[in-house]
Fold each of these.
Amino acid sequence: MNLKFEEFQKSNLGLKELDNIRIKSFKKFEIQGFPTKKQEHWKYTDLKNIITNNFQNLQIFNGSKNLVYNNKLIIKNFEHNKIILLNGSFIESSFIYEDEKKIIIKSLKSILENKNDFNKIKEYFDDDQNSMLSLNHALTNDGVVLDIENNYSFNKPLVVYNFFDKTAENKIINNKIFISLGDKSNLCMIDFYRCENNIKYFNNTIHNYTIKKNATLKKYNINDSLDNSYNYNSVKIKSYSNSVFENFLLSLGPNLIKNEIHCNLLENYSSCFINGIMLLDGSQHHELKTNVNHKYENCKSSQLIKSVLLDKSNGTYQGKIYVDKKAQKTNGYQLSKALILSENSAFNSKPELEIYADDVKCSHGSTTGNIDENSIFYLMSRGLTKDQANKMIVEGFLNEVIETITDPNVKILISSLFNERINKVNV
Amino acid sequence: MLDIKNLNASIEGKKILKNFNLNIKPGEVHAIMGPNGSGKSTLANVLSGRKGYEIEGTVYYEGKNLLEIPIEERAQKGIFLAFQYPIEIPGVNTNNFLKTSLNTIRKFRGLKELDSLDFLKLVKEKSKKLKIEEKILSRQLNVGFSGGEKKKNEILQMSILEPKLVILDETDSGLDIDALRIVSEGVNSLRDKNRSFLIITHYQRLLNYIKPDFVHVLVNGKIVKTGFSDLAQELEKDGYEGVSIAK
């Protein structure tokens, strides 16, 4: 593996401070390399191995001149605002359903060119928890910074389109998304991924969200396509008092995806809900790693993850609830259920509770197994074939999580994408 | 309709049904009564095709060897088993399940599949007739249903699927009087000259509501006595032991 950093660095010279950060961060990455299973947090996803096996010649993506995306990929019959990213770079946005005075949107590229703007986000370049983050700091050249003012509730959902085209082939793309939600503001946002041809690339994105007092961020990750892509997403959230963060992950499509969610409940009565489903076949490898940090009293968190594994697929859920000694009256919950439908598939579940307060309610559970024979028999005794019965049970098993989606229009959208997918899968 | 000859069934080496014989003609209602462990549920399981039994003997259904017919085809060909313990299946909507079931069976019978509108009309009509609240159908299949609701759901399924042979496996157990009445009325409303019923029960009380043509007493895997519906009352009085000893 030979990432040509110097070439990249020279063609991206800008603010002195940023240049130094890039050089420093890339050095850190070079020392550590891609994460391997020897690192605790990467035990179930040996990224170095996966990259070596799937990319002969991975190159740094250094922007493209093409700013034209395929209009047909836009979601139809669904009223929404848009942010469009092509190969990680900001292309355009439209907020036709909103009061645009309340919304400030800038490309990360423009922020990185302005000293004052850059100073406001500089601290986020210090996070070197793993080498993928360092790599991102060194190589990021675009993304989005979105600020929502106080007291503003979106009328319609915002879809962040992450499009990829053939210039991304065999490239590693690094970008960052910043979202800040002011006091008492509400946003429902969908991260939506599409690429036209089945091209192979690696996408490394860092998300940083700030949810201020009494604000609500609902976020939906839709990964139902991009069959040949490899992805690492690190999401960090700062939640202030009385705020709500709801995240649903539809994890169906890519060859590889590792989603990492670090939610910090910093003040009284903030809450975090992470639900998701994985339906994997072939040799897909998906991991969800969550870190919910209860740093203050009276906060609530809940996680429900259901997974179905076929063929040689591999799924992992590592869910951690951390309760600081200050965080009395914490209510934390997590449950993982998986159905393994093939001898060659595997599911790893690692629930963790780390509790330093003494007045808390925390529970976790994890089950992994087969489809219940009695259920199959019941359905077959009503005339369904074994295949129909299996499919109905699997669909029901996963549908229970889809049912938890609180935005009714998004629920319909996700249900229909899920149905498309399950009809293609051979359960 | 159903002709069972010298049926032996064992599970894990333990013989449950021993040279069991039974013949049911179209339109007949047969009740099988017996104490716990006499083989009542095994009979229902074998007829519906549940795996795990070693079976000898013959079972003919409409002239065909039933034991060779796969589970789902038994249902498609008109056999309906009302479960003693209906299974809870999370996430599966009862309406969707029932529509899939009905259309699979209709397709097999060469009938046109029903679209959602026609299906809902049918469900409305049937549930009204049976005095069963329609709303249980919009819930997840049997999940969180009370014992009575589960059994009512079985009866509603029965009336929608219009089977030729109905096997009721202790459908009356755990029912209060009102639910028992609904279940019985469901069965009675479906009685006709072409449809047969095999009612498996522990207690006589269901037979106060459904008058069988024949009552058989099953003890230790064998029918020890056959009579008309008054036999049920006799059993209530003398108990199963009385009957066995009398034999």
Amino acid sequence: MFISMKWLARHVDLSGITPEQLADDLTLSTCEVEGIERFAPHMSDVVVGHVLEREPHPDADKLGVARIDVGGDEPLQIVCGAPNLAPGQRVAVATIGTVLPGDFKIKKSKIRGVESRGMICSVRELDLGDEHDGIWVLPEVDETPLAVGQPVAAALGMEDWVIEVDNKSLTHRPDLWGHRGIARELAAIYERELKPIDLEMPALGGGAPVSVRVEDLACSRYLGLAIDGAVNGVSPDWLRELLLAVGQRPIDLLVDLSNFVMLDLGQPNHAFDRDRLASDGIVVRKASAGERMTTLDGEERELVESDLLITSGGDPVALAGVMGGEGSKVGDETGRLLLECATFDATTVRRTSARLAHRTDSSARFEKTLDPTLPEAAAAHFANLLRGLQPGVSFPCALADAGEWADPARSIHLRGDVVRRDLGVELDDDAIASILSRLGLTPTATSGGFDVAIPSARALKDLTMERDLVEEVGRIHRYGSVPEAPLVGAIEPPPFDRRRQMVRAVEDRLAGAARFHQVLSYSFTPDDLLERTGCAGGDFVRADNPVAPDMARVRREVLPSLLGLVESARRERDVVRLFELGKGYRPEEAGEDGMPREVHQLAMVLALPPGVAGAPFDAGAFFQLRAAVDDVITAAGVTAPCWASADAAHPAAHPVKQVSGAWSEDLDGCGFVASLEPGVARALGLEGELTSDVAVAVLDIDALLAAPASPPAYRPLPKFPMIKVDVACVAPSEMPAAELGGMIERAGKGAVRDLQLFDVFRGEALGEGKKSLAYHVVLQSDTKTLTDKDAQKFLGRLERSLEQQGAALRR
Amino acid sequence: MTDTTTILAETRARIADAPDVEALRAIEREVVGKDGVVASLLKSIPGLPPEERKGAGQSANELKQAVLAAIEEREASLGSAALEAERRADGFDGTLPPPRVERGTLHPVTQVTRELEDLFTSMGYMVLDGPEVELDDYNFEKLNIPADHPARDTQDTFYCSSPGSSASLLLRTHTSPVQVRAMERLEPPFRAIVPGKVFRQETTDASHEHTFHQMEGLVIDRNVSVGHLIGAMKTLLRGIFKKEIEVRLRPGYFPFVEPGFELDARCPFCTDGCSVCKRTTWIELLPCGLVHPNVLKAGGLDPEEWGGFAFGLGLSRLVMLRYGIDDVRHLLGGDLRFLDQF
């Protein structure tokens, strides 16, 4: 919103206060000022010229050549086409070098062979209105022609500063949506008087009042003032300039006055041509479905049942609080008016203006919830201003005043001790009372504090409880005057947070030793990515108003977000390691309050260039990632789970190359590690030169938290030496390594300290359907030195157990 | 019989010429080994006349000792030559690039979050978490933002539906819902921060994102004042910027605090105006205020007994300020070229 300093000065004396200071003070006490600008800065460059003579142009019928005195040694010769230019006039001259609106720089030129040293300006060229029929003939001030050569702005008293206030900082203050409200704040800040203005309703005639019927509660008050004998036309300069300063284009007197009253008091209002209303007067009602109306801007709009309408003779004449209708607008001939000043429901107006994507100065104000006592003041203000300009106007009948409303004015008890406690300042009761009074609130001292009378304008939503008044005192007293204070009280370390500690340990291990990059992703997963990764199944929480139609689904799991990054990452580098710790939402497991279950997951992706023949069995992505997962589980301080082949661990998991982990049958599984499903890999674009060996893993953080902890534990260093035995087992191809490992462990009878697979071999020498797994085994006892005899016993036990399972020991 | 002196001379010459330790070992085997020259000399002794036997034995032993001494000497000199060569390190260039070490990274938002968590936990704050898919009730109603409140205009919300649920769900527009959740769950007094992801339905560009990170702070105690809030905020800023930062509070409207403030910090990056502070020397850094009595009530606390303050820190914005990131979309974009920089 734009605020004019000159306009403010109608309400409060601002002498001695610079625009910068005013902006700072408003920002620190009231609302955020976004900027200050000089009004029409070019008007300080354009000077008053005196037309000495006008000769016809020798070479062009429609042009004249004028000699203009601008106070210099010599008059300027200027070529001008305006028909109304005449000697003796005072005109606005843009001399060479002046820049006019639109970045138009005046240069010395020759027009049809005649030199021209400047430009005589029209109103439109100066951005002061639309008139462009001729040049602007400057008025006399105090019946004296203007002094030649001075800037026009100074000569006409047009200097002004425009302050832009951030509308968002005014959402809770409907009273600040007009100059008087801001002026009241300044009066409080600077301890100056708020000048009285005449808001008394003029004498009204005894004619039959205009009929007004309110049929809907969304209009709590509809006040209509009938005015006769108005003469529409061009507004006086002071009015035009104030409107221009705050960015309002002057239209005609009646519209300009209506806007002025809104921008002065904050009450939107609308002038109807009474002769264009039907005889039944005004009916305020909701629209019926499919009803249409043409608004002031000439657009035909389709209405819905929630729109509130002002109608006459059954037809809509205005969209309540948003915009007037084309049919009943005031025009040049309007002499008989009906001025509407009403109070409409904030939500109703907001919905209509949002649906039509049409926010107006009026709707912006109604959305803030307006004071129902304000219409009367606004109508009187309009009437008095008009009568001041046109003493001939009359008000033929009583006010039409319909609707059900109650004055929100109230009283709030305020304790001085509460002010001092909440603000943390020493401020005595007198100082508190002074601030409240300056703000237009009325404190009456009672024991321990005040009963503070809150006027209607502030009482609706803004000031409803004691704490609201604490803020009033604080902001005028200035928060800058509040001394900084340390929080006192026992500081205890917060309770141990195992989840956070575990998450940090996991992050550190992955980003550190495991060399993964941490990703944070959007919670929306695009439909297309879900399809490509095979993860579109299951119920999703969906945004009703997504940023894009295919971005409505809130993710159930984290993995697809990472998979969506693999293709572009693989273009960048050979080895891609990514992880994300994040949340997913499962509607099918909703809690009692209807909220979907939240899962906390660690997802990991490892992508490598395709494997080469002859590489070690554990060189591929699957085993590399398994190693990283085991390492992370150790870092999390949790016992290693048992990994077993599973089917259908995940839609993006390879049907065979996958394992799932679990600690016991009673506990939830911890997650899975798998190679990427080959079809998914292709769908993700990992083919051709981007063909990759990709493994994925998902761990459930809640399962990790529930798993048996395995903190580092000391174990005495061995007293007896270890012996190393290498064993090679030939087993059927389908026998899992985990089973062989188990047999070796058992054969060791507790003496197996370490077991490391170092070779996996398949070949003709072994026979069809066989594989050989070779291990380094470390045997060690806590009670004696093991000998070769012990090793042989171990091998014997192993051989027997292998043979029982259809495997064999290679000796 | 061969003259041991000649043998010694020849052997010494070969030892002197031996290029390496292996050659020395070969000579050693040949001369003093089990079947070597010395051994055969000794073997031949029994066939000698008795008066020569003693001398022959002596000569053979002397030969052995002399050869071994020569080998040892040569070996030592070969060793020191090797050491010397190693020390000379011909052709070494320490400026050749070392092998590249790939590294992993923590996301910059994680890094800054941790820094703040550590700062706050050292002052007795707990770190809390809350749901991203939230109930309308917690995001708005209990925060004193009723259904028709204009504040809902400015917070463009992703409203949500969840199959089988009739609850009014949304993606939380701020971390503030955790204020009430914390009051419901914890015994006052307490201090807590809530880092997390929040959502706004808005068109994205270099400075706008529909998903970003925030950190809520909440202190609930008796007799908490604006003065305490100012003190806490200055401590926070000192922790973030590692220097004393001047602040100013000005009125700001947030329905869940009263009075509510915008806290501006004196721009930490300049003294006379820069692009970060838009030439004003102030940067709008965190909204804050005293917890609104209605919010305390919603959290089950008596506003006559308990009070508190709350603040909201834009984590994403702070990360951008810290590293000079010019496009907010990088944060959640997952581009390795971005992630690798932190």
